[in-house]
Every structure is written in structure tokens, then in C-alpha cells.
Design brief:
The protein is α/β, with parallel strands linked by helices. It is built from 9 helices and 17 strands. The protein has an 8-stranded mixed β-sheet with strand order 3-9-2-1-12-16-17-15, with helices on both faces. Strands 8-4-10-11 form a 4-stranded mixed β-sheet. About 40% of the residues are buried. It binds adenosine-5'-diphosphate and magnesium ion. Adenosine-5'-diphosphate binds next to strand 13.
């Protein structure tokens, strides 16, 4: 690979700006906006794999399944993962292709349906903790429970299905992603953290009922590719200590050991910033010379110029 490789993980805010912009035309417009900032990186010479989330889209798909269950067969969760990778991968590939074309940049874009292997004995399967789909009544929840789902009452907001979020171990299409990168493609992969698969006793792949954290899976990919940059694009320009509290302090730089310490002190909330910092820690442990950056899409360019964002490196 001639140019430097970045893994760019784009968060939910690159697809759905807010609750009033969940429709597909709005999602496409939001993706197009993010792709303008990503195209700036490509114009500056970066090679990259773009990864993305799919939480709300999986929720919508589950809801469609429920409403249509009397007419058409239900879609299993691994296949819903593949469907959302396809739909979102298409939106990103089309938007980026168009943006590059307008700028006269000849870089092809290729979305890759990606399976990610987890351990079928991962303890997460015994205690599913990740809420999935909408909230519902107790009666409805108990119906799902009879179908084999774990259901839980969530802090007064209603009942919800719970799903396992096991640790990603292997990106099945990794060699294909690398080959595409080496051939000059901008790759879209590991969408929604990847389609969760396990290997059975015979070593054969099987879809499984789980969702994989997209920050963790993106970190695994960035480590495997030895990417020079792991960029997590989300809704905040920088990471903060005492986030949303008195004495909030925005961070320009963090070392690996500071990241570990602040994480242990509870500065990064579980389920939002926590997994991102954990993902960056794992990437820097595997790749001590790598650089990690957290910022929002519209700040990517100035962050890469060293003017904003939160940078994390193994040493100061
Ligand atoms: P994504 O869809 O990009 O994964 P998340 O909502 O999961 O986004 O995580 C990003 C969010 O984490 C930010 O928008 C912010 O509200 C929240 N957050 C939690 N702790 C912090 C922190 N210490 N500094 C900055 N943001 C934080
Ligand atoms: Mg998140």
C-alpha cells in the first residue's frame, strides 16, 4: 500500500441526524454530508476502510418484521445485519462515489458484506445485555420470551428484548478487504460491527443471534490492517473529562495510559464513549505506532491538521 491507511468508523449521527430525520431521504442527505468530509481525506491521499453503525436501522427492520409476520417469513437477526450492511453500504458507496466524481478524483469504492466471528462460548451469550428493537408491553415481551428471546424491563421505559454483544475475534472477509485496499479501492466494511457468525464443531460458519459493537469490530479491523490512523467520527468534536458535569474539560490529547486511567475512573459512559475509548486502547496496544482520533464529521479536516479533535497515542 502506497498511501497511508485509515479505518474511519462513522457513528449513528452520520446516518440519522436526530429523531425528526429518520426517513430514508434524510438518512441519504446525512450520509452525503459525511461523505464530503471523508472525500477531503481521500483528496489528501488517504486510503481507507469506512465502517458504520446500524442500531436504529436494525430496530426498524425488527419492527417491519413484527408488523408483517402474518404475511411474510421473519428475518433472523444475522440476516437483518446483512440487509442493513447492504442498504447502508449502498448509501455510503453511492454518496462517496458521486462526491469523488464531482471532484475529479478517480478512486473506486467497494462495499463488502462482512461476517465477524465470535466465540460460541462467549459469556455474553449467557447474559444478553444489549437492548434491541423498540420498547413494548409486558404481555408482548413475554410472547417474545416464549420464542426464546431474553426480555427485560428497562428503567421504567417499558420492556425490551436483550441480545448478546460478544467480543469480535476474526473478520472473515479481512483478506478481501486488504486486497481491495491494495488495488486502490475505498472499502466500506464491517457495517454494524459485522454479521455475527460462529464456527460449529466441524469448523463451518453459522449465523448467530447477537450484535457486535461497531467500535470493537472497527478496532479489530484497524489492528489487523495495521492502519496508521483509527478515526472514530461521532457526534462530539472532542472527548471530555467530567462530561456534562461541573468542571467538564475537553481533551486535545490523551496517552494510552491516561485513556486507561480515565476509563477506569468512569469518565467515558458505557454504551457511548466507553466502547470507543476501549476500542482505541485495544488498537494502540496492538499498534503502538498508530494514531487514534475522535471527532465529529465536520471537524475531520481541521482535526487532521492538528487543530481540534481528541488525539490518542501510545506515548505523549
Ligand atoms: P455513535 O453513534 O457515534 O457510536 P454514541 O452516542 O454511541 O455515538 O457515542 C458518542 C456519544 O458519547 C457522544 O455524543 C456523547 O454524548 C457521549 N459521551 C459520553 N461520554 C463522553 C465523554 N466523556 N466525552 C464526550 N462524549 C461523551
Ligand atoms: Mg455508539
Amino acid at each position: 500500500m502506497d498511501s497511508k491507511v485509515a479505518v474511519v468508523a462513522i457513528g449513528g449521527n452520520s446516518l440519522i441526524r436526530d429523531k425528526t430525520h429518520q426517513d430514508l431521504p434524510s438518512q441519504i442527505a446525512t450520509v452525503e454530508e459525511t461523505c464530503r468530509h471523508i472525500a477531503d481525506m481521500i483528496a489528501a491521499g488517504w486510503s481507507m476502510v469506512i465502517t458504520h453503525g446500524n442500531g436504529p436501522q436494525v430496530g426498524f427492520a425488527l419492527r417491519r418484521n413484527e408488523l408483517a409476520a402474518h404475511e411474510v417469513p421473519m428475518t433472523p437477526i444475522d440476516v437483518i445485519g446483512a440487509e442493513t450492511q447492504g442498504a447502508i453500504g449502498y448509501m455510503i458507496a453511492r454518496a462517496l462515489d458521486n462526491e469523488l466524481k464531482v471532484r475529479g478524483i478517480a478512486r473506486p469504492v467497494a462495499p463488502v458484506i462482512t461476517q465477524v466471528r465470535v466465540d460460541r462460548n462467549d459469556p455474553a451469550f449467557r447474559n444478553p445485555t444489549k437492548g434491541i428493537g423498540g420498547f413494548m408491553s409486558k404481555e408482548k415481551a413475554l410472547e417474545f420470551a416464549r420464542e426464546g428471546w431474553t426480555v427485560r424491563e428497562d428503567a421504567g421505559r417499558g420492556w425490551r428484548r436483550m441480545i448478546a454483544s460478544p467480543i469480535p475475534l476474526e473478520i472473515i472477509e479481512q483478506d478481501a478487504i486488504r486486497a481491495l485496499l491494495e488495488a486502490g479501492f475505498i472499502v466500506v466494511a464491517v457495517g454494524g460491527g459485522g454479521i455475527p457468525v460462529v464456527r460449529d464443531e466441524a469448523g463451518l460458519l453459522k449465523g448467530t443471534i447477537a450484535v457486535i459493537d461497531k467500535d470493537r469490530a472497527s478496532s479489530l479491523l484497524a489492528s489487523a490492517l495495521k492502519a496508521e490512523l483509527f478515526l472514530i467520527s461521532t457526534a462530539v468534536e472532542k472527548v471530555a473529562l467530567n462530561y456534562n458535569k461541573h468542571e467538564q474539560r475537553w481533551l486535545d490529547r490523551l496517552t494510552l495510559s491516561e485513556a486507561r486511567r480515565y476509563l477506569a475512573e468512569g469518565h467515558f459512559l458505557a454504551g457511548s464513549m466507553g466502547p470507543k475509548i476501549e476500542a482505541i486502547i485495544a488498537y494502540l496496544e496492538a499498534n503502538p505506532r498508530g494514531k487514534a482520533l475522535i471527532t465529529k464529521p465536520e471537524a475531520i479536516q481541521s482535526a487532521l491538521a492538528g487543530q481540534t479533535g481528541t488525539w490518542v497515542t501510545a506515548e505523549a
